[in-house]
Each structure stands twice: as C-alpha cells, then as structure tokens.
Design brief:
The structure holds three protein chains of three kinds. Chain A is built from 13 helices and no strands. Chain A is an all-alpha fold. Chain A has a single domain, classed as MetI-like (MetI-like fold, Orthogonal Bundle), CATH 1.10.3720. In chain B, the strands form four sheets. Chain B has a ten-stranded mixed beta sheet, with helices on both faces. Classes of the chains: A mainly alpha, B alpha+beta, C mainly alpha. Chains B and C meet through helix 1, helix 2, helix 7 and helix 13 of B and helix 2, helix 3, helix 5, helix 6 and helix 7 of C. Chain A: Its main location: membrane. Chain A: Belongs to the binding-protein-dependent transport system permease family.
Amino acid sequence: MQPQTTETSVSVKVSKNEALTRRLKQFFKYKLAVIGLIVILVQIFLAIFANSVTSYSPTVQDLTHVNLKPGSPGHWLGTDNYGRDMWSRLVFGARLSLMVGFSSVIIGTVIGTLLGLLAGFYKFLDTIIMRISDLMFAFPGILLAMLIIAILGTSLLNVVIAISIWSIPSCARIVRGSVLSLKKQEYITAMRALGASHFRIIFQHILPNGTAPIIVFATMHMGTAILSTSALSFLGLGAEPSTPEWGAMISAGQQYMWQAPHLVIIPGIAIMLVVFAFNVVGDALRDMLDPNMKSR
Amino acid sequence: MVFFMGIVLILGMVLSACSSSSSEKSSGTSEGSASGAPQELTYAMTSKIVGLSPIMTNDSVSTAAINQIYETLFTKDPKTLEIKPLLAASYDTPDDKTWVIHLKKNIKFTDGTPFDAEAVKYTFDKLRDPKTGAPRASLLAPVASVTVKDKYTVVIKTKEPYGAMLAALAHENAAIVSPTADKKQDLMKKPVGTGPFMLKEWVAGDHLTLVRNPSYWQGKAKLKQVTFKVVPDVNTAISMLQTGQVDFIDGIPSSQWDRVNRLKGIKTMKKAGTAVAYLGFNVRREPMKNLAFRQAVAYAIDRKAYVKQLEGLGIQSNSIIGPKVFGYDKSAEAGGYSYNPKKAKQMLKENGWEGKTIEMLVANTENYMKMGQIVQDQLQKVGLKVKMDTMEWGTFLDVSRKGNFDITFLSWSNSTADGSELLYPNLHSDNIGSSNVTGYNNAKFNKLVEESRASTDQNYRKQKLDEANKLAIKDAPWVIMDHGVVTAAYKDSIKGLTIDPTGLWSLYKVYKE
Amino acid sequence: MVTMIIKRLIQLIFLLIGITFIVFMAMHIAPGDPASIIGGPTATQSDILAIHHRLGLDKPIIIQYLDYLNGILHGDLGFSFQTNRSVAQEIWTRLPNTIDLAIASMIVAIIIGVPAGIISALKQNSWLDFSSTTLSLAGISIPNFWLGALLILVFAVNLQWLPVGGLDTPFWTFKGFKEILLPAITLGTGSAAMIARMSRSSMLEIIRADFVRTARAKGVKEHMVIWVHCLRNALIPVVTVIGLNFGGLLGGTIITEQVFAINGVGRLMVESIASRDFPMVQGGVLLIAFIFVIVNLVVDIVYALIDPRISYQ
C-alpha cells in the first residue's frame, strides 16, 4: 500500500490538464475500450434521440404486417409478431436498458457505498453490516431477485429494486476494503487526533480517495444489471410484455425463433454488444484508476 | 467476438431452415415400419405432476396421468361428449333428488381390492369431507348422502335437484380410488385405480413411468410402457419431438403451431374444445358498471384479428357457452357486439370516457400476455389509456379474486363440458369472491342458472342455459376472446390417439407401428 | 486454523437461522396464497379455507415459524404444500443433477479459462492475448438463456450430435457426457471468462515477481520457470475465484435447468416460488446457502494450505 500513496500525492502536483491528457492517451491504448466507449455513446445517442431516429411507436401494433423480415420497405429491421417496428423497439429498448442499468447501479452503489463507509469506519457497525451482507451473499443472485419480485410484484421498477439490493453487498465490501486501508494512513490519523468531525473525515477525505474502485464497480455492474434484467424477463418476472425491453423481446421472440429468427437475433446481439461495451470500459477504467492493478 | 457469435447464430438459423430433411431421416429410420416397434411411448409436459390422487389434485398435468390410472363411474364420449356409463352399468332416478347407480361387476383395483359400492361410497365421502381439504370438493357439494344399497348398488341423495350430476360423476376428480390402498398409503405418491395403466416408477419433477395393467377389465392396453417427462420449455419440448426423444406433446402454443406443422414425420391434430377465454370487466367499479362502457370495449376489440394471431388455434364466437358445451345454441351468436371501432370511439366520447385510464390485470403466461397486448393496443386506438399489470399466476389468482382490477383475462377449461358448470361458478352471484371474478350479479340471470342446475330434464336445462347465455351476452360482463382448440403433435408411427374437446386423452387404444 | 474453522461453523449456524427467518417472512409477506394455487380458479371460498387448515396456514405466523424451526432442529424440513412429499426427499432426488451440472460447468470453465488466461499472459499484447481477452469478455456478455437456445438449435436439432435436453445419467459416463455437454457450456462460459481474467492478471504479476527473476537469473530453464514457479503461485487467487463462482453457478443453474429440461434444485426453486410452496422454498434456499458457505470455507482452507503466507489468527 505505501508506495501507491506517494504516487497519488505526486500526481496531485502535476497540472490537471496534463494528467487528463495522459489518462486519455492511456485509455486509447486499450483498443477494445475505445470500441466499447463508442458503443456506449451510440446507445446514449439513440436513447436521447429515440423519437427522432424512429418513425413508428415501439408499442403500436399492425396485425396486418406481422413478422416482416429485416429489409422490408418501411421497416428496415422488420416487424415482430404483432407488427411492431423492430427498429423502434430496439431504439426504445436502448433507452430502457440504460435507464434500468443506471438507476439500479446508482441506487445499489449509493447505498452500498454508505454502508461500506460506515462498516469500514466504525468497528461496531462493521460486524453487523458485514454479517448481513454475508447473509445476502449466500443467496444466489437470481433467487434473491425472484424472492424480492415475489413480494413486490412483477414490474420493471421492481426489477430495478431487486437488482439494486442484490448489488449492495458487493459494493459495500469493496468500499469497506478501501476505507480500512485509507483509515490507517497518517493524514487521516492526524485529522482524527486534531478532532475533525467524523462526517468530514468520511466524506471529504476518505470518500474522494476511494472513488476509483467505486467507479470501476459501477461500470462493470451496468453490464450485470442489464444481463440480469433480461434473465428476469426471460423468467416472466420483468417488464410488461409490450414494453420494448430487450430481454423480454428475446423471451417473447423465442416462440417465433423458427419463423422469424430476427426477433431473437436482434435484441440478443444488442444485449451482448452493450454488456460487452460496459465490461471492456470497466476493465480499462480499472487498469487506469485502480493503483493496485496498474502493473497488470 | 461478438460479431462472430452473431454469425454463428445466423448460420444456425440458416441451417435450421434446411434441416428438416435430416430430421426426417432420423425419425424414419429409428422407428422403422416393422410391426415389431417397441410398444413404448414418451409424452412431454411443461409442468410437473403434483400428485396422483384424483381427490387431492386439480391441475391439468396431474389429471392427464390420473386419467390413465383411474376411472370414473361415467365418461364422456370423446367425439359426441355424450355421457355414458364406464364403471357404472346403469342408473335410474326414482325422484329428482335420488340417483341409484348400478355398478359393473368383477372389476378389481390393481392392488387386488374388488371394485364395489363400498369403494364408491368411500371415495365420494372422502372427496366431500371438509377435513380432506379436496380442491374439487365443490363437485359433490349438492350431495346429501351416499349409501350402499347392496354390493353393486349405490344410492346418492342430493339436497336439491342436481342437473349436472352425471357430468360431475364423469369428472376426473370424481374417479374411484381403492379404499384399502388409500387407508394404508398416500395415493398422491402410490396411486391405485382400476384403469388400464399403473405406476412403475416416479422420479419427482422429472418423469413418471406407467406400465399396462395386466388384468385390466376391458383387456390389456397395447402400449407396454408410457413415460410422462417434464420439459418446462416448449421450445425444448418441440425440439425433442423433432429429434425423437419424445413421441407426443399436446397443448401446443399458437406461436409454435407453424413450426410443428412443418416438421417431417410428425402429425398434428386439432379440434374444437370446450375451453373459453374471455376479457372480464370488474362490474363493481366505474365506469365498467355501465353497459355502454362494456359495449364500447366490446366494439373496440378486433377479435377476428386476435383469432388470426392464434394461427387457427381458436374459434371466434360471441357466445359465452361455446359450440362444444352443453347449452349452446347457434342463435346466441347474433346477440353479441362485433368489431366496430368507430362506434366504440363515439360511445366513449358521448359518455365522457375518452382518455380515461383503465387498469388491466394480466397473468404472465404466454396466452394471456398475447390477449393483453392486443387488447391494450386496440383500446388505446379508440381513445382509452390502458395500464397493463402483469403478475405471476399465484399473485394473479389472489388479486383477481379480491377484485383489484378494471379489466382482466381468464379462461375456463370446463372439464365437464356442461353449460351450468360454466355459468354457475363464473357468473352466478354465489361465487363472487371466488370463481366469479367480475362480480357480476343479475337476479334474472341467477334464477335461470339455478333452474338449469336444479332440473334433471335435459331439454328443459338446455333451454334455460340458452336463455341465461343470451342474457349474459347482451349484458356483457365478459367479452369472449375465443373458444379453445385442443391440439396434439405426435410421431406418425403412433396410431389410435384421440383427444376429447376438454383436452383429455386416453392411451388405452394407442399403439406404435 | 482449527479455531478458524470452528468460528466459521458457529457463524454458519447463525447465518442459517437468519436465512430461515428472512425466507419464511418473505414468503408469507408475498402476495399469492398457496391454497388458491392448489385449488385453482375453480375452488370455492370454503374449498380454500379447508386447504388452509390442512396446510396449517390458519395458525398465527409466529407459531408457524417456531414450528418450522423446531422441525429443523429435529432434522425435519417439513412437507411440500404441492406434492405432500418430504422437502428433504424432494431436494435429495434433484440435488445430484444440480451438482453434476455445477461441477461439469466448472470443469468446462477451468478447461477454457485457465489456459486462455495463461496464454494471454505469456504472450501479453499479442493478437492471441487480444482475442482471448475479447473472447472471455464476450463470454460474460452473452445472456445464457440465449446461448442455450442457440446451442440446442445448432448441435441438437440441426446436427443432432447431442440430445436436446434431459439429464438421466451421471456425467462421467458417455451418455451422461453427451447430455451434460451443452448445458455445461451454456453455464460455464461466464465463469470461464472470469477465470481467464483472473489467471491472466495473477500470472502477469507472478512473472514479474522477484523470485521468478531470481530463478531465471539462476539459469533455470524457461519452461521450468513457467510451469513450476509461476503456475503454482499464480493459481492461488484463481482458486478463490473458482470458489466464489461455484456459488454463482448454483444460481445460474436456475435458468440452464429451465432451458435444458434438467430436473434440478434450481428449477424446483422456480416452480416452488411460483406456486408459493413455502416449505419447499425455505428448504431449498437453506440448502443452497449451506453449500455456498461450505464451499467457500473449503476454498479458504485450501487457500491457506497452498499459500503458507496466509495465516488465520
């Protein structure tokens, strides 16, 4: 741990601009990460301008034009078994998966970080919080989500809640780990000796220095959240069927896989691309931000 | 890499398009046309068998197996649905509250216990006993007593005249069990009946193997062994049929019908069934209380387009009592409200319901989600807002019973194929809070249904049912989505399979060529 | 070491009691009544009350919980609401399938993951490294129900090399091997990816470690350096990942069992949650949690054994 602290304190002296360009250069060294970043940017673009890039509503049916193949006039990605435009559904699905991913990651990370900070800083809370997180770890993720949805009912919002809860313990562990090591450092011990308030120490000194692993966790978790949403939709526990959620689209499309394979291929590839993108970007971020990983 | 996977997938799809020839070869050669084909059959079902006691179960999968092991006093002819004696020899009704049933002689349960009046009394008393907690105890609810007159005669007395008695006695949940076996073991696990097959092995949740009953009273079955295998994913089940791991499946979803029909070496069967699927209004709430609103919704739904979505696996009709159910009369079709979106829009506008939000409750199984999505879209096109709530089946049952919805979808399989058994549980006010989810309560209708139940004169009953049916169609607590079609797909080497309109089948006469 | 194990076992007991409480309460709070599911839409109100009584659901909830705990202390997990069979027996018939599937997937994951990670570490920044990294990332990114359907389509339906589904024989026999191959690949890809990443990074770290340099400097042959010095040390963190992943695999079996028609504990859990079969869900979750904790305990012990630097006070 020691050498890394000196490294961070040195880099503080370097002008911010220079540090940024250095990091950017480092980032572009990871070719995959650049591809991933482009995919994410495209997704964000589609999510924001969903209304402008599509000419149909994603939910309006046209029962006279069902299962059109990709390349059909007016529907370049074809239509589904209710005659809904696949391109519109794909684009609005991009918006949904970003929303689901972001909101569950934000909820999970905020709560997880708070618990992690408390557990790491206060010894008496540590045991309680960590035992509870052990308890949650012992449940397989999907099973935990299924139980939560059984209580709350099936809806996309409840999927978000279930996935957030499921991510809390891992996040709390990571944060706790970095708090434990930061706590021992001289300047923190010094501040405590000087009588600085705990609140100030935690939020002004420990948290900012421990953000790197949180950001990495959050990015990687975006992928997991999107995948889990689709898995829950596959089990019929996710979005209501007319919403263009990618997992629900695959699950519904599977019934027509033999007549209209595009119903399954298109959302499947979309999920893979996006999850892949978040994973490679997360990987690259970890290499850059997490000093422990630098040598790898 | 991602692109590579995509390519593999697309390749897979292309391969699948031209693969039917290979599957034809395999299914052709493996079974062969020799008469020495092994007399064994594998059936795939999408959920597990819960138990094998007719008294303690009430789900279609368990019933499919129970139907091979046990027998009822009466049975429905699979084609005409006419009720005829099975374990019974004959019956007479000295007065309209007394049924004297004469039993067939020299029949034995597979544990050696003789089938007699005691066994019938034992079974019915157990089914009726509140302590048993039988799910279909209501079948014999009107019964006051069951007495043994002599070894082969049972007398059933009812509290009031019970018109659907024979239909109830022909119901699989009223099948006769061996009293000696029931006293010493759990029939859910170790069933003993008089039927053509008996249990050999059961790996819970995976498969159930039956072998033929060597001393079956109508002569041995041709199949030596039958396996019921659980395959939860329909896609997988059909793939297994295609590759020959499975011989027979039923209840094929409409989305798969086209695929199944294109499989080589596989035969399909479909015929009109007794099940009915409907949209139900919660008539206790505004605006569903108003006939005009219900009419407007009925006008807004293009049921022809919906039935077309079902790939022919549904029959379009306005009548609540379906064509295959006792009490149906063709004239009922004229009474409904056919598709007319303009009129719907106008009616909604006139009454100030335009833009109103309707809560639609939908169970998360494929068929209901299909109805839900189509109706949601069509109602939105005439100016309503529809909020769809999907739930798991278990939650759905609870919520719909409590009446927490505006509109919902349900179906009724009607295993007795009798109109009274459709109208009474679903629309009579006695059953509000349980099976009457819409809360429909109409005194005139109630009276007609009671009359249809209380008589044993079948012509009179039919007339009352028809009147009640027409009244309810006009009043529209339900909009009929479709009447069901029963389906099966099986290897072409399998002969002698018939399915009755309630979806049940017997493997007694089935054989492999 | 021994005290560590005892301490962990005591914790395990509290953990399991905590789990019974959470699952018990969760199932009772959840909307949906087991009796109305057993009765189906045809059951009348009195039918349902009778079923309630038969299942003991008419007692106060605290009494029900205490009864349940009391049963567990006597080694009785209760009876399934749906099938009336003992929960232990129901789980016991399905457990071998799930364990087979989890182990087979783990083997697939190790066979793919470890070599891929090592090769890409040894040839760092080559095209081999690049493609194996991409491959392993793609492995985590594929929804596994999608992959399963695809594998069935290609290898079972079109090529007919392997059966579509079902698992009737143990996986070490030829027939069982054919049956489990597709499900194991479906489930194993995600873990393979994680193992590959872990092997790669820990291998990279070791290659640069002092003792390896010393070995090289002493003139030890290159392949000896790699196989003897690096590999053994590099695999230590990999073992942890394998342990953690095993728990994840148990969860992953839920979807794989569904797609491949395997009669396992995961599928039993899906059915039991849907049918609100309380004793079944409680028993199943308890068992899965138990296995998870034990596997991790074993991993920690193995970890301590292969790495003398770690000690537990």
